[in-house]
Design goal:
FAD/NAD(P)-binding domain; homodimer; NAD (chains A, B); FAD (chains A, B); EC 1.6.5.9 (chains A, B); 26 strands; alpha/beta; 4-stranded parallel β-sheet; 11 helices; NDH2-like_C (chains A, B); oxidoreductase (chains A, B); 3 domains
Chain lengths: ~425, ~425
């Protein structure tokens, strides 16, 4: 066997270090968790290789704004090599993980390359969970990747163009969002605002009454994990924006043009967004690692994968716990888990013991629309409305800026965000 | 027959006008020529319908900058409905022209809709001319649409990622540009700059010596239509940027990985750009209209299609003449032709005679790279270098701003343009 396989033959960057006995850390996935691990490890005595199937990182919390034409794709995505410029010792490889051979500390990529590691961090994120509902995977859109968001945006405007050209057939301009969690609420709110603006400025021939945004939620309220008052505020704000919120409604089956609810209600739709659950990508079940609820990889308290000494799983793909509780699949825990895994690797490399991950919950937020959001902050502080929206905005800008580390994004983003009132700028794909 | 078919059933906008006996003008194509016709006609006594296969207009002169990662797709494309907001009487329909029935003044779209017109303006632009060279259409990229430009950009960076991961195989990082006219020179110059920047910042493991940019030109000089001194300056500047300019070289055949020149020279390539000739899109030959050189639609001096009283052809698709000379396929003539067609329709509607089109050539320009361009202005003024580059920049900004009519583009563009020195921001497609 060729060993070590960590360097590819043409890679002369950092050659001197690679010939030393630095430990090799391979990180799979350039999301919040993976990038946060890099921030922790880049200036320590490691050779770090980041692997991602894309050559760009995506700021997932704002993808729904790309989908609803509030932002452009370039505003929420950053070339990984640009991000890594500040970490000269971290290298990047575009590729897809297909196999781990823990016995020999090797991973294999889709192109057949094998790469050796001393420590492996799995941070390849999550995807939709359709709970086996018939037709859900085929006919609905989820918004986990930049391509997903662009596809939804294209679909929305194709429907508008179709309606403008051929008239409005049943349901053709009905947006159905399944799932009343933060993602569903954000998507429903933004869709309603998009419809208002698009009809006012660009599709003046379409009566607003023929455009429907419907949010379907199984439980008796939206934003279930939030305090009662915030959840009620969100419901009210959604309804004020003409979102038809259907609580206590369960999807039974989805056909190409109709959502069938349990109990016999049928909703003809033009666009269907699936925001009902987070699941593990197919990759997770092919790696031979233990999986828990929703396909998440089971990890020990220190975030190492059960029964593996030198493999960590962090972010949405990991069933991380803090105390006895399962950590939610959000950006904040992902950032903290990535950092924790990095710190444990620093410990392990010095033969020091690892410590258990503990999630510091600073609060949760969701935005319903412009000037309307809910924030439930650490210490029992609940915010709604304008103040919560500003908090949401500032928080996302700070995080975005931290990742991108360039003023350009801030300017771009603010500009687009502020000027959005003039109507969405929409470019359809080919 | 349902007549008039001009209004689609749901279109209530401008209802009152449509029931009057205003003349109906249908414009096919939202490029420079089509939009310029609209500017001329929008406030006159006409019902104007614009048809385009995309829902956005593209600023073609800067597409090569999207292809070479200097600009983002959104910087050079504008939603048509946004552009038309200032013309409330002009309507838009996304669709593809498939047939004209001049006897009954009807056009048909790909979805089967038939639309009546009193005057028809064809302005659907041009595409590549491969002159029947084997393999050219299959294996080369041309840059006429936004999708083309994105495809080229993806291809370039896929090649870089491939080289970074697997080493540089023969020709894998060789950019071949066929055609030494303005487009070819711009593309070759921008590619060379992109390579320099990308290697310096993001692909530091790839030696510059293994990256080649080759410009293949059949004639003995580049920029043939420019004055000798400008053409020589361009050649020099290209070579200073390490572009290998192969003059007097004719492409014989193209295979998936090699360009075969007449005389036996073979160039293995990674990316091949076709900038050797402008031709008519397939649509042009299916409409039953007379075609001239390069498939261009033959028009009378007043820009009406030969033998057709009320059909105009303008822009790249028209074989327009000025005096006895064929007008070049560029933005400036397209703008002037669109305006001229509009004015003739105003005349015809009042039973006034039409006049012959006369092209006012204000000069031609081409940019080789940053701070290097050539401009050959009306009155015998030749500019090169920094001054020509500034002239090019200002001219394009003014035109871009005129089309978009919004400050946002200017800011965006300047920002991206100025910050490009930090390296290209590249997002690959899925």
């Amino acid at each position: 066997m060729n060993w070590p396989l960590f360097r590819t033959k043409d890679d002369t960057r950092g050659l001197e270090e690679l010939n030393t006995d630095r430990k090799k850390v391979v990180i799979v996935g350039a999301g919040f968790a993976g990038l946060s691990a890099i921030e922790t490890l880049h200036d320590k005595n490691f050779d770090v290789l980041l692997i991602d199937r894309h050559n760009f990182a995506t700021f997932q919390p704002l993808l729904y704004q790309v989908a609803t034409a509030g932002l452009n794709p370039g505003d929420v995505s950053f070339p990984i090599r640009t991000l890594l410029r500040k970490y000269p010792k971290v290298r990047f490889r575009q590729g897809e993980l297909v196999k781990i051979t823990p016995e020999s500390n090797l991973i294999e990529l889709e192109d057949g390359s094998r790469i050796g590691y001393d420590y492996l961090i799995l941070a390849f994120g999550a995807t939709s969970n359709y709970f086996g509902i018939k037709g859900a995977a085929e006919y609905s859109h989820a918004i986990y990747t930049l391509d997903d968001a662009i596809e939804v945006r294209n679909r929305i405007f194709h429907q508008f163009e179709k309606a403008a050209a051929h008239g409005i057939s049943d349901g053709c301009l009905t947006f159905v969002v399944v799932g009343g969690g933060a993602t569903g609420v954000e998507m429903a709110g933004a869709s309603a605002e998009l419809c208002d603006r698009a009809l006012r400025t660009d599709y003046t021939s379409i009566p607003r009454s023929l455009v429907r945004v419907i949010l379907v939620e199984q439980r008796s309220k939206v934003l279930e994990v939030f305090d009662e008052a915030l959840s009620e505020y969100a419901l009210e704000e959604l309804r004020r924006r003409k979102v038809e919120v259907m609580l206590g409604s369960t999807v039974d089956e989805i056909t190409p043009d109709t959502v069938h609810l349990k109990g016999g209600v049928e909703i003809p739709y033009g666009i269907l967004i699936w925001a009902a659950g987070v699941g593990a990508p197919p990759l997770a079940s092919t790696l031979g690692l233990p999986q828990g609820r929703g396909g998440r990889i089971v990890v020990n308290p220190d975030l190492r994968v059960a029964d593996h000494e030198n493999i960590f799983a962090v972010g949405d793909i990991a069933a991380a716990t803090s105390g006895d509780e399962l950590v939610p699949q959000l950006a904040q825990p992902a950032l903290q888990e990535g950092r924790h895994a990095g710190l444990q690797i620093i410990n392990l490399a010095q033969d020091l013991p690892t410590s258990a991950f503990s999630y510091k919950d600073r609060g949760i937020m969701a935005t319903i629309g412009r000037r309307a959001a809910v924030a439930q902050l650490k210490g029992g502080i609940d915010l709604t409305g304008w103040l919560a929206w500003m908090a949401w905005l500032v928080l996302h800008l700070i995080t975005l800026l931290g990742v991108r580390n360039k003023l350009s994004v801030l300017i771009n983003w603010l500009w687009h965000y502020v000027s959005w009132g003039k109507g969405p700028r929409v470019i359809l794909g080919g």
